[in-house]
Structures
1.
Amino acid sequence: MVFSSSVFLFHFLPIIFLIAFFIKTKYTNYALIIGSLVFYAWGEPAFVLLMMLSIVSNWFFGIMVDKSKRKKMWLVTAVIFNLLIIGYFKYANFLIDIFNSIAGSQILAHAIITLPIGISFFTFQAISYVVDVYRGEVKHSDRLANVALYISFFPQLIAGPILKYKDVNSQIKNRTVTWENVSLGFRRFIYGLSKKVLIANVLGACVDHIFNLSIAGIDPAMAWIGAVAYTFQIYYDFSGYSDMAIGLGKMFGFEYPENFNYPYLSASIVEFWRRWHISLGTWFKEYVYIPLGGNKKGKARTYLNLIIVFLLTGLWHGADMSFVIWGLYHCFFSVIERLGLKNLLRRFKPVGIIYCFLVVLFGWVLFRSPDTVSAMQYIARMVLPWRYQSAEAIQTYLSAKTVFALVAGCIGAGLIQRIIPDALKEKLKYSVLESVYCVIILILSIAAIASNAYNPFIYFQF
Amino acid sequence: MKKRGLIILLVVFVFVVCLSQPLCGLLEGVIETNHENRTLASKPDFTIENMDTFIEDYNRFANDHMLLRNNLVTLNNYLDYYIFQQAANTNVILGKNNWLFYANTNDGDPIGSYKGVNLYTEEELAAIADNCVKQKEYMDSLGKEFVIFIAPNKERVYSEYLPDMYGDPSEQYRALQIVNYLRANTSVNVVYPYEELAQAKALLDINLYFKTDTHWNSVGAYVGTRVLLHELGIDLPAIEQVDIAQTGPISGDLQGMIGLAGFDFGDNYYSVGGYDTNGFEYLEYEFAGNIKCKSDSDPRRIYIIRDSFGSAMVEIIGSQFSESCFRHFESRPYSDLLSFDPDIVVYETVERYSFMLGSFSLFGGE
């Protein structure tokens, strides 16, 4: 079930909200668990069993890690168990491809495997629970329901933010839902919904048109427009989803961490990864980079650790070499910045912002293209425009609506927030004027949902 | 609650999200009308039998039964059209001066034909001709005259209203290929009244095709039918000699496709009179099946296999033959062809469906 569907907005959300709001507090978590399983089953009926297996197993591992004398053995077992689940469903065919290419022939056939929605998100949450218990940062949960709600709660279930048990543990046990929070959460949800429906989906139609063409049919102008449109599409799609998740969490009494902080205003790639998909970056930092030694074991080891983290970040996004290359591409710039480029960028911040935006933009071409060769051919059209003829009239793929979404997307990705004085921002916040604006964009979003079936979230593939 | 803005949002949440579905149930049939050319999904019951399809069925039900759905769809499409000059349906092209054009590549690809990018090969033309000859020989064996009639696409006749990016119409295109090939290589009689329509268009200040619809109007149909009837030995008055009257506004099929049915696009129905209708009378009218009529004119009987373009030709043709039968091409088999015992058989198709000439069959029971 996607948030921007009528079945979620007008059937699931009101029912689960009214139940959670009006039943006795001690039953609320059970209602939310049942609701979350229905939410997940709506898209993947069979995989709800996989999720329940993950919940029960990790709850058990948490107890064993906390109470057993062989804590490390149970921790390793838990991590291997979770990695096996994600490895089988997400990476089996990728590993088969690698094996076959090393062997030089098709020895192993592809397995027919459907990827469970959100598996990368809920598996990482499960791992962080067991690791945090092992580290003593949090006590294991005696109640299966607490772990079940932590892993399966529908707002963050299929596209994050990736939570850590230590951050929400106390909220699962005890939280207060107020009408004020419901209103604040709904406000945040509206902003997220409109980012997804009014901007990301509109840009998505243009992006799909361009990237679905054969490479010979793409001219330099088209290539740039497609790349820029995708750069904003993926931001508004994913950050819109995070806004909706954070808003929904608030409506049910949870405070979720922010997942984006205007990443396209970053002046370096290192800064970009502190602002983009913050919960994933934090997860890798806490559970991979620092355990590997972080930057405490010398320069060479630091760079090796960075390579490992970016390699895994790429793989997390998809089981394909192009994602690995995308991860290593970001790693390359992150390393050269640490080698001295960052000092230069700090002195000329506007140059840094342009540099970072372009690096990220070319990275998104690697990310969006069907394979690395196609991506290289696409990038060639962007950087060597004199070698390619124009192919298609610009109006066929760039409508006035797309231009509007692109301009709005560009302004809304941090520029307007920087320009408006703080005093005015404070005045507008929660004002009647802002709520009227929210109601208008809500109506426009619902109108677009009513008349448009173009709805898949990009990040569901992860 | 400190701020009034938050109170407003809370009220909106309660009314828009929480209460819209119960309200929709209460008001269904009172304020909501089905403007779509399909049956809206009904609420599915969860049973063992429909376990596999329940979720999909329920999603369809939820989409079809949103409170004020029609108004919301219209709002979205209105903004698309009037603010962004964009069609909510990718199969519709917004032309100049509120002209709409059909652009479905999976339904005859009229724009591909306009651009001449989907031309037939010699082998394909030969295969089409073979089939046409086979049908003609069958009709010859029954002693019936056989004619193929191709109604020109709107995109070609009114190309000046297409957006500039589509350029000029291609000089070589599918329908013309078929017409030229049949005329050069077979004895099949084929009528394609493009030139006559172009001449009439230059002569009149009335449109021959609807602005908001895929079809020609009564005026265009008269011009086209006159060419066909001339081929069958009947002469009707020229278009400038008949009476044309505007009979009311129309909201065409393309306008419906972009969800703006009912808005004034300045498109009109016309009636054509002033020619002898010979006591024309309908005997039967089923749009997707048979339309039968009679008149006190030429004693011959005519059987026409037609598409939707043929429906505007009914009264003109029907008034010139003693009995006429117009069978929709999708209502196969044309089993009544023999029992009707016509003197003339016409296969009518719009240009974008002319590829069907390679596969249509007049043999009963096929």
Note: Chain A has two domains: 6-175, 181-461.
2.
Amino acid sequence: MTLILAAIGLLVLMALGAHVATTMGLISSVMTITMDGVPIVVIAQTAFKSINSYPLMAVPMFILMGNIMMRGNIVFILVELIGTLVRFFKGGLALTVMLACVFFAAISGSSVASASAIGASTVEELKRERYPAEFSAALVAVGGTLGLMIPPSLGFILIGSIVGIPVDKLFIAGIVPGLFEAALLLITTYVICRRKGYGTANSSIDLSGFVRKLPRSTGALSMPVLIMGSIYFGLFTPTEVSAVAAGFAIVLCVYIYRTMQWRDVWVISKESVMQSSMIFAVVLGGSLIGFVLSRMGASQALVALMVELNMQPWQFLLMANIILLVLGMFLDGVAMIVLTAPLLFPIATQLGINPIHFAVIMVANVEIATLTPPIGLNLFVMSSIAKIPVESVVKGVLPFFVTRIVALGILTYVPWLSLVLL
Amino acid sequence: MPTHEKKFGQAGPVLNMLLNIGTVFLLLATVIMILEGLSRYVLNVSYFWAEESVRFLMIWAFSLTIGIAGFRKMHIRTELLVQRFPIKIQRLCWLLSCVTGIVFALVLIYSSFPQAVRYYKMGIVSESNLELPMWLLYLAMPIAGFGLFWYYIKAAIFAWKVGDPFATNEEPSDEQGADNSKTQTSNPLL
């Protein structure tokens, strides 16, 4: 009963606009204080422990790296290079943008950052080739979500920190699902362009242009190789690679491409530290909720209930997807992970579902959450960049949304995709 | 400046200075991790102090900047429902949000400060070879609480006297705010 009241209080406060971090912190603090035999100092101890985590330290540095690459206009360089190979297709520019999303996903851990960077760099170009604004906006909104699945992924770092799964394994697990989703989205883009006659096509592949532009793009292309290669071959820990990648991004943008100055690096670092604080605050609040749930035996009770109901793994996965899809309509990705991971992972593990596979499913749901109204963040980002109403972006996203749901279904029931590289 | 023209977002020189210190901590942590990663890979030498110092630098960066992150409208909230209410109800919601933050900040301070004092009196140091005084590390928690408290108090006063302290379409007006407004904030992150 207490838990139900607390959940209602949490949802009401959040719905009334209270900050997610402080709402979680306050509700769980009140519950902790009212528990028998729990000293108040436990609140501070749990809060400190939650952010005193080595894997979590990758978050600020990946944020710094993503922001540097975003502001350094690296997307232009990628779009130019990819375009030389892809633009002989009908709708080649749309495919170029989607492929740029895949590349940018491999250097950014955030869906919103990817959409912002690619949208700002490509929407005008798409407009010049007479792609409808709602399609262009939807293309980038959907492509941007790949930033969450393809490593480095802030979602995986959060899940790893909260649940205790090695982040490097989660990163490796995200590679194939990310590429699989990208392939489905590319096919969807191609089909839409063919059927609706969007875009133009060059007469042939521009190989000379590719050779000419490749040397300048080498730096940008080497970033995903550095990140994924070093993690896959175990050269660096995720936290180390986040720092090395941030340093490399600064060198690229300041000295090689000269798209920013040290003054800009300082301003971006300030912004990055505040964004990291925001995430740490949510993690802190979520850890207190986790403590309360654990102390009250909520996870164990749910596990027992599942066993009693004789729930099969496929039924649980279906239920988890529905819960996450519904929550994703109203919650931000960080809050969604922090709130649901402590409850859902113990059940998944109890039912014999590989936690790494379940982490991939959770991230796939967070990706979709950034596209679902009323609080689909990428919809708002692209509405602002393309200067069209959010409803128009939603309309454009619909065909891609079907693809995302199909992808989610396949990722959910084909664990091989998530576990093949491990 | 007339009251109706006031904009929320001025963090003041102290919080701006704390932001600068927090940013230095982030950059320092990044440099240390680069050194550790490269040294471990190239020289096969690992520094015993690297991991712990990065953790504590980032914890302190968090505690110093959590308040100003509020002034810069970085903290996550949902405003969809609130926007549909009449202005009087909206004001109540803003105040409710502030009270939530203030109470949590006080809980954080109240629960962590005695622990920091206890660590100080007992002279406890961290478990690693660095042997840092734990009270110094733990002090980050009440400092974070103070940062949040200051932010929510200012936000509550603004909500009471002027308007929406959480609105994101206003540009902060002090120096750092101007810096920040040049760079498009993409928030929240996921």
Note: Chain A touches chain B through 86 residues (CB under 8 Å).
